[in-house]
């Protein structure tokens, strides 16, 4: 789907565990006259098609895993969906799925993967990715090294410094988020235990005061009602963390993993480019040696010498073909490396700012929920007193 432009809209499916996904793709004519014609597309109008599919959250997770493992070089800007669970907030799941699918279709290399990614949007059948070979993330360079390349030696120090800072920032934010989630999980666990104890106490009080009509029984029933309210508030606090805060923070840790994967994949792309340059250099030297032999053998030789010259000429033709193929491989490797490098450098600030804004919103929402619950506790205490 060369020159394709995708749009996607996600809404809640018939059930809370499904997503309704509507996509449209515009295939622009590849005729070299895009600036001509009334609509700017050239002599032919674009081909527009629409698709509609229902996907489970598990299928969305499968697409996320595929992109990260099969196309690590293109997942730096990937916005991870929520890891769905029974308590996931449906509206948050839709919002994060929209961001994820939009980030996938915004990358042409991903949107044009007709074998593995496009079926998620276009097929009416269940999305089960075909088997694929995960991309290698093992670079011959040190894991902590973000060296660019000697082939770009003019600004090598600046680029090294940038990637080292980016990797350090990603790992630091990831560690902080993991600690925050761990602490909030512990707090939610305490709230659940607290709520369970309150419920047990409320049950005992209700059983004791159910048949009595004296003033003590009346006060005990009022206390039981207060404890019931307190248990509901405590349950709501823990549920909000499990269904909302934890899931949203986990989405960011998944996105940060993708960013690190993209940095590792870029180092592999650098290895491949340098290897391709070496192959091209060897092919060039081999062709030069063969060409020299052809020149030396073509100086008025007859008979066997002429046959030998023809054989050498054939070797030269093969050498030219090998050199052309090596140059194509080198060109493709350079394209991948330049794309990854430029994408990371150009997108890093925007991605970092977007993550910071969303993390601030997540924490603000969490604090607002805590204040709301504490206010409800005070109101319950006043009503009881």
Tell me about this structure:
- Mean pLDDT is 81; it is low at 32-44, 143-158 and 297-304.
- With 385 residues, this protein is mainly alpha-helical.
- It is 67% helix and 8% strand.
- A 3-stranded antiparallel beta sheet has the order 1-2-3.
Give a brief outline of the structure:
With 385 residues, this protein is mainly alpha-helical.
Any descriptors?
single chain, about 375 residues, mainly alpha, 3-stranded antiparallel beta sheet, 7 helices, about 10% strand, elongated
Spans with pLDDT under 50 lasting ≥5 residues? 32-44, 143-158, 297-304
**How would you describe the shape?**
elongated
Strand order of the largest sheet: 1-2-3
Beta-strand content bin: 5-15%
Query: What is the arithmetic mean of pLDDT?
Result: 81
* Structural classification: mainly alpha
Number of helices: 7
Task: Give the H and E element order.
Answer: EEEHHHHHHH
Query: Gap between N and C termini, in Å?
Result: 70 Å
Rg of Cα set: 31 Å
Largest sheet: 3 strands, antiparallel
Number of strands: 3
Amount of helix = 55-70%
Question: What's the SSE blueprint?
Answer:
Elements: E1 4-12, E2 18-27, E3 47-56, H1 57-70, H2 90-105, H3 108-111, H4 118-122, H5 156-209, H6 215-297, H7 304-384
Antiparallel strand pairs: 1-2, 2-3
Helix pairs in contact: 5-6, 6-7
């Amino acid at each position: 789907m060369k020159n394709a432009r995708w749009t996607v809209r996600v809404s809640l499916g018939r059930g809370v565990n499904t997503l309704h996904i509507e996509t449209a793709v515009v295939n622009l004519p590849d005729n070299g006259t895009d600036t001509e014609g009334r609509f700017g597309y050239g002599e032919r109008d674009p081909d527009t098609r629409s698709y509609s599919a229902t996907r489970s959250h598990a299928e969305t997770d499968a697409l996320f895993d595929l992109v990260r493992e099969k196309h690590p070089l293109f997942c730096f800007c990937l916005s991870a969906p929520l890891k769905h669970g029974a308590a996931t907030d449906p509206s948050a799941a839709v919002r994060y799925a929209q961001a994820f699918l939009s980030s996938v279709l915004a990358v042409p290399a991903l949107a044009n993967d007709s074998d593995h990614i496009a079926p998620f949007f276009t097929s009416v059948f269940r999305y089960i990715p075909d088997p694929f070979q995960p991309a290698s993330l093992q670079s011959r360079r040190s894991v902590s090294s973000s060296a660019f390349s000697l082939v770009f030696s003019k600004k090598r120090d600046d680029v090294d410094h940038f990637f080292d800072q980016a990797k350090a920032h990603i790992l630091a934010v990831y560690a902080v988020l993991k600690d925050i989630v761990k602490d909030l999980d512990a707090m939610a666990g305490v709230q659940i235990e607290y709520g369970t104890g309150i419920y047990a106490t409320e049950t005992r009080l209700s059983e004791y005061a159910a048949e009595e009509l004296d003033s003590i029984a009346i006060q005990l029933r009022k206390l039981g009602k207060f404890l019931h309210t307190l248990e509901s508030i405590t349950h709501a606090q823990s549920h909000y963390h499990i269904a909302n805060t934890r899931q949203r923070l986990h989405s960011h840790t998944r996105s940060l993993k993708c960013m690190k994967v993209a940095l590792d994949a870029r180092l592999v792309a650098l290895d491949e480019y340098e290897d391709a340059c070496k192959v091209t250099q060897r092919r060039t030297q081999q062709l030069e040696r063969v060409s020299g032999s052809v020149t030396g053998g073509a100086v008025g030789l007859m008979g066997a010498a002429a046959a030998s010259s023809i054989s050498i000429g054939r070797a030269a033709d093969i050498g030219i073909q090998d050199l052309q193929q090596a140059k194509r491989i080198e060109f493709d490797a350079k394209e991948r490396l330049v794309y990854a490098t430029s994408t990371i450098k150009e997108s890093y600030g925007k991605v970092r700012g977007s993550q910071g804004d969303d993390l601030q919103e997540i924490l603000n929402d969490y604090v607002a929920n805590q204040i709301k619950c504490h206010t409800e506790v005070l109101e319950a205490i006043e009503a009881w007193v």
